[in-house]
Amino acid sequence: MSNTLEILAPAGNREMLGAAVFSGADAVYLGLTGYNARRTAGNFTPDELKEAVSFCHARGVKVHVTLNTLVYDRELPGLADAVRAVAEAGADAVISDDLATAQLVKTIAPTLHLHGSTQMSIHTPEGARELAALGYDRVILARELSLEEIRAVCAASPIEVEVFVHGALCMSVSGQCMMSAFLGGRSGNRGACAGPCRLPFDASAGLRPGQPGKACHLSLKDMDYIPHIRELMDAGVVSAKIEGRLRTPEYAAAAVAACRAVREGQPYDEKLVRDIFSRSGFTDGYLTNRNDGKMFGVRTEADAAATRAATPKARELFRRELQRVPVQYTVSGGVEDGGIKLTAADDAGNKVNVYSMDEPQPAQKDPLPGIERALNKTGGTPFAAAGVTVEAGEGGLGFLPGSAWNEMRREALDKLLEKRSTVQPHAIQPFTVPEYPAHSVGHIPALAARFANAAQCPADYVEKLQWLVFPIAEADAVPADWRSKSLLELPRVTFGKLEEKTTARLAALQNAGFAGVVVNNPAQLRYTGGWTLYGGLGLNITNPMSAARYTSLGLHGLLLQPETALTAMQGVAPGVPTATLCYGHLPLMLTRACPLRNVRDCASCHGGGTLRDRKGRDFTVTCSAPGGAGIRTVYNPVPLYMGDRLREMPVDTALAAFTTETPQRTAQILAALFAAQPFDSEFTRGLYYTNN
After folding, report:
1. What gap in Å lies between CA 53 and CA 34, rounded to an integer?
2. From the centroid of its chain, how far is CA 203?
3. How far apart (Å, rounded) are the C-alpha atoms in residues 388 and 385?
4. I want to staple 43 with a disulfide (CB 3.0 to 4.6 A). Which of 31, 338, 384, 397 is the partner?
5. pLDDT at 3 over 60
6. 142/280 Cα distance (integer angstroms)
7. What is the mean pLDDT of residues 408-422?
8. Alpha carbons 175 and 320: distance in angstroms, whole number
9. End-to-end C-alpha distance for the chain, whole angstroms
């Protein structure tokens, strides 16, 4: 088993960066101010990034920069500038989830490595293959995978595979959560998540109508796969990522030290790792296929007290930096040369020379042991002595006092560190962001509808609707005479064997008369050959550059991400029809862990339930299948509605998404939409009138 696994640590600010590096991280990931998924971290300006890269590269540590938020039309020039700043700083890789960012990286700085963010929701072999085809060098897998599933991706992937091994677990599949955006106006997909899932969402039975929920049944414990690192290495994982840019330097150091120990087959301080931060302990439920009620936990006062007590001990882990850059010394010259030359060389080909201030005197005994003692004193530097070669001149090396050797060593290592600190920028290619046409406003878009099942669709509206969209699982129930205008929607995530089953199902339905397929994950571009393709909610399309890229990949229409304001939506006009939601209980969260498992098991569940929040509102939870392969969806209790403002929507098609409505209620809402009537009960305009 190789021990070359990269330990990748979070660096939310300069102090955390130092702690991660000094404690032994092989790479760090950090945010450039403005374009990353942790906007509330300290983050780095372009000048600070350059300094960070210089500091890290001097110590043999790589720097990955996160440019992994959804981007709107007006932000594309700024994003291009951010890519230039990363390239000029000499960073090693960009972590990206939007295809616009990927395109900018490959166009502006082709030698920058490109890593597919976990927000791309890649969790299958075909997903890894598609990222490779899109130009990515590494895939950062979704956190919900079992060891067996990770192994399958690694075996199939043409590019490197990175997994999270420690830190906070989002309840939702990353990139598929809109809870913070729609409940609090702070988008997790835009780097501003407020963490509402840590608040009370109670699945308990017997709550009175309107009674506030108290239990936190959407709050998962932190993940901890550190004990499993050797298994992950054996599976083919190349990078072990520690979550936590919003946490402390002590947290980063404790996790890094533990990962390093396990990688080398050594014991580690499990209590320190737990005490420095946990939510009543940890979970490895996803990795070990035990995603049950034991995965859930909250941060208690006892946890906070343990952290305060453990902090001084963790601080010791980065009080002095790890000596890990091997330095080879060569000592030449001697008594008859009038001085000594000390050469220090690293393993990257850097070399420096320093010279003694004094002439050596004839030696009374072998000077080499004393020289080696002096040169091996590399404490307080990132260097570790890797040997001394002597090339003595006529008359031998002679004698110099220990203070002289110490001074030469210090000077040589300072020069070598300075040389290693020199930033090597990536070559930058000229590029101007294209001017994209704006979508027209003022016309009424065509109406289409997505139904949870065929029985929900009122037959009276089939002819009136431009498209009917059904989950692929409903294909057989769709009447033959509806199919010419029916699209089959593929799942946003396909854990377990579902990708294989979906591929087989598509092949079987190829000649069944359907109009096309809605793809919801980049992986699905690989096994939908022969179908007319449309882009769905899961692709998170928010800007014209990514829309144009998906169009070039074969999509004939695009559903825009519903956090996008109407003003931003107007800028997405890729040359194929665009659509957005005009009605629906928005899917706030997609999760593999089941919040209902806090109060019951799958055997006693009827495929869903409700969660009561602290304000007494009920959030519907549906389940696609029992157990770990199934997906739970948490819906907003208040529906989005734009039926009386359709003319303000700058898209070609307005889509009504029906989930748990009865056929009768569905017919009522469709009637209101076609008549452009106001809604008959509580509703929201979502984020359509914000200034994003």
Report:
1. 18
2. 29
3. 8
4. 31
5. no
6. 23
7. 97
8. 38
9. 49
d(CA 346, CA 341): 17
Q: Rounded to whole angstroms, what are the CA distances from 59 to 52, 55, 62, 259, 421?
A: 11, 7, 9, 19, 8
User: Which residue in 33, 192, 130 sits closest to 12, CA to CA?
Assistant: 33
Express each pLDDT in 467-512 by its tens digit.
999 999 999 999 999 999 999 999 999 998 999 999 999 999 999 9
Q: Supply 239's token pair.
A: 């990078």
Distance CA(244)–CA(255), nearest Å, equals 10
Q: How far apart are CA 411 and CA 506, in angstroms?
A: 68
Task: Tell me the pLDDT band of 35, cut-offs 50, 70 and 90.
Answer: low
Q: Which residues contact 266 (CB under 8 A, 6 or more apart)?
A: none
Is residue 201 within 8 Å of residue 255, measured between CB atoms? no
Question: How many residues can be counted in the chain?
Answer: 692
pLDDT at residue number 358:
86
| Residue 662 structure tokens | 């009865």
Question: Identity (one letter) of the amino acid at 647?
Answer: R
At 150-202, the pLDDT tens digits run 999 999 999 999 999 999 999 999 999 999 999 988 898 988 899 999 999 99
296's enclosing H/E stretch is none
Q: What are phi and psi of 115, to 5 degrees?
A: -115, 130
DSSP 184-219: HS--GGGT----GGGS-EE--TTPPTTPPP-SBTT-
Residue 313 CA to chain centroid, in angstroms? 30
Q: In the numeric block, which tokens belong to residue 457?
A: 């669709």
**Are the CB atoms for 136 and 115 separated by under 8 Å?**
yes
**Strand pairing category for 62-67 and 27-31:** parallel
Ranked by mean pLDDT, the top range of 185-189, 239-243, 604-608 is 239-243
